[in-house]
Design brief:
Blueprint (H helix, E strand, L loop, with lengths): L4 E5 L5 E5 L1 H28 L4 H41 L15 H68 L6 H26 L7 E3 L1 H15 L5 E6 L7 E3 L1 H17 L5 E10 L2 E8 L27 H11 L3 E7 L3 E9 L4 H11 L1
Parallel strand pairs: 4-6
Antiparallel strand pairs: 1-2, 3-5, 6-7, 7-9, 8-9
């Protein structure tokens, strides 16, 4: 239990007596009760001795005056700091963090309150300065990335035109080669490399020049089912099963079906490529209040913890043949849908991607997408 009277040393090392406000509050009440008891005794005496009636009046008036003075002093020492604190809190609420209270020098609980308030405002001021610094850095980085994106998009566009000509020449050369010619195998490899370059350029263009989603209420079960069917066609030669569990009670979800189809197909193909030998990929759709959860889980090799924080970065890939743009593009599409994408993985046990989307898009998001589309 806290002692009512404490002796502490100030900054100069001198001892100072500190009386808690509990004692300061009880003292005037006790004083009033004591004066009331004295007045009662004096009134009893005055009834027996009328000559002391005048003394009683003077004593009573003095007691009331003393109580009033004590109450006024308490109101002054308590109310003024509270009024000042309310004013400073209002200024902080308006964004002014260059404030401090003057009663922080007091050696009591009110002073503790003032010191804590000044410390809190100082921490808020430092945090805001740090946030402003980080915001400036992020804006500078965003401008730099935007410039690089425009440059990359221009280069990709310029590369695709001659690449199409090269692909045409390779096709003609391969068609004119005799059947037993060993060069046919080389031509086939060149075609595959050209197709790989074209996929990289396509992903790069979609990343550098993203198109806003065209939000429409539609059946998300059907969108995902189409992606699952396409992924099944691409894994016919592998012992991999792709299972789909739809939500029959899911209402229409506002989304861009083409973009979400691209997201799910990318996640499915990544899951298939992570499976070595026999395995399974499970897709589960589950509506929950105003959101829908889409889980894509596989029992493949998993992602190591040192790679997991970076898999959504552009051009970061753990696959030898990947472009490193698929997951980055998927996250951008999901975030454009006001959703989020998360991943959990354990090496040797598999990976699960969880996509969360709102069933209804905010009005300003829908209006912005329609304006961009028009």
């Amino acid at each position: 239990m806290q002692s009512p009277v404490n002796i502490r040393r100030d900054e100069s090392g001198m001892p100072s007596v500190r009386v808690n406000w509990q004692v300061k509050t009880v003292l005037p009440v006790a004083f009033v009760l004591l004066n009331g008891l004295l007045l009662f005794l004096m009134a009893t005496i005055s009834l027996r001795n009328p000559e002391r009636h005048q003394v009683l009046i003077v004593a009573g008036t003095g007691a009331v005056a003393i109580c009033a003075a004590v109450m006024i002093a308490l109101a002054y020492f308590i109310q003024r700091p509270m009024v000042e604190l309310q004013e400073k809190i209002a200024r902080v609420g308006e964004g002014d963090l260059d404030v401090s209270v003057n009663f922080a020098k007091r050696n009591d609980e009110i002073g503790d309150l003032g010191r804590n308030f000044n410390r809190m405002v100082q921490q808020l001021r430092e945090s805001r300065e740090e946030i402003d610094r980080l915001h400036r850095n992020q804006m500078s980085r965003a401008e730099h990335l935007a410039t690089l994106g425009e440059l990359a998009a221009g280069l990709a566009h310029e590369i695709r035109n001659p690449l199409a000509g090269i692909a045409g020449v390779v096709e003609i050369v391969g068609r004119d080669l005799p059947a037993p010619s060993p060069a046919r195998a080389v031509v086939k490899d060149v075609r595959l490399e050209i197709a790989q370059i074209n996929r990289i350029l396509t992903d790069l263009l979609q990343t550098a020049r993203p198109h806003p989603p065209e939000m429409r209420p539609s059946d998300l079960n059907t969108t995902i089912e189409h992606a699952v069917m396409l992924a099944r066609q691409q894994v016919l030669s592998k012992p991999v099963q792709i299972e789909l569990e739809k939500d029959p009670e899911l209402p229409l979800v506002e989304h861009d079906s083409d973009q979400m189809h691209q997201v799910l197909l990318n996640l499915l193909l990544n899951a298939v490529q992570a499976i070595e030998g026999t395995g399974a990929v499970r897709v589960v759709i589950h509506g929950r209040k105003d959101k829908v959860l889409i889980s894509v889980a596989d029992n493949g090799r998993g992602i190591s913890p040192e790679h997991l924080p970076f898999i959504f970065r552009p051009f970061y890939t753990t696959k030898g043949t990947g472009t490193g743009l698929g997951l980055s593009l998927a996250r951008r599409i999901v975030e454009d849908h006001r959703g989020r994408i998360e991943v959990e993985s354990e090496v040797g046990h598999g990976t699960e991607f969880l996509v969360t989307l709102p069933i209804r898009q905010p009005q300003q998001c829908t209006e912005g997408a329609e304006a961009a589309a028009s």
